[in-house]
Design a protein that fits this description.
Number of helices: 5
Largest sheet: 5 strands, antiparallel
Structural class: alpha+beta
Strand content: 25-35%
Strand order of the largest sheet: 3-4-2-9-8
């Protein structure tokens, strides 16, 4: 006989791509940007709009708190203890709960290879981050009070209303 415990651990590695914008809720453009990577899920929460592919996210940004993860958190059990949630919960649910308790202080505690979005709708605050060694991709573009971000560069470029001009500060000396 095989007994499956209700405490069966969720997979810790999450493979997805995502693109989002703060201050520009054209979720259709974001969905089109990531559509080549697979079926797309979209959500808006106030001034935040996000589109992603991959497995369903158990903690969506449309709820009070949300998280999207691309990658793996190696010390997820420790983070679950801080969050006071079961270690067998989905990684994104653990991270959303930990962000609710710790805020930005969560980031230095994370170990792994990841890019993530954390959002608190009621507080109207959030963050996008990648691991300390930069193995997870995170690309951002700010323009006119709006911020676009994506887990991979091609998706960011597709999400933008126009291709950005070269950064003059980076071209000095060329």
């Amino acid at each position: 006989d095989v007994i499956v415990s209700q405490a069966t651990r969720c997979p810790t590695r999450v493979e997805r791509v995502f693109a989002g914008a703060y201050g520009d809720t054209n979720v259709g453009a974001l969905a089109a940007a990531v559509a080549s990577a697979g079926p797309v899920v979209t959500v808006t929460a106030g001034d935040l709009a996000v589109a992603w592919t991959g497995p369903p996210a158990p903690a969506l940004p449309s709820h009070h708190r949300g998280c999207l993860l691309d990658g793996e958190i190696f010390n997820l059990e420790v983070i679950a203890e801080f969050a006071r949630v079961p270690a067998y919960a989905a990684p994104e649910a653990i991270l959303a709960a930990a962000y609710a308790r710790l805020g930005e202080d969560l980031l230095p505690r994370l170990r792994g290879e990841f890019t993530l979005l954390l959002w608190d709708t009621h507080m109207r605050r959030g963050l996008v981050a990648r691991d300390q060694l930069g193995s997870g991709g995170l690309f951002v573009h700010a323009d006119g009070g709006r911020l676009w971000f994506a887990s991979e560069l091609p998706y960011l470029l597709r999400a933008l209303p126009r291709t950005p001009a070269p950064d003059r500060d980076c071209l000095v000396g060329l």
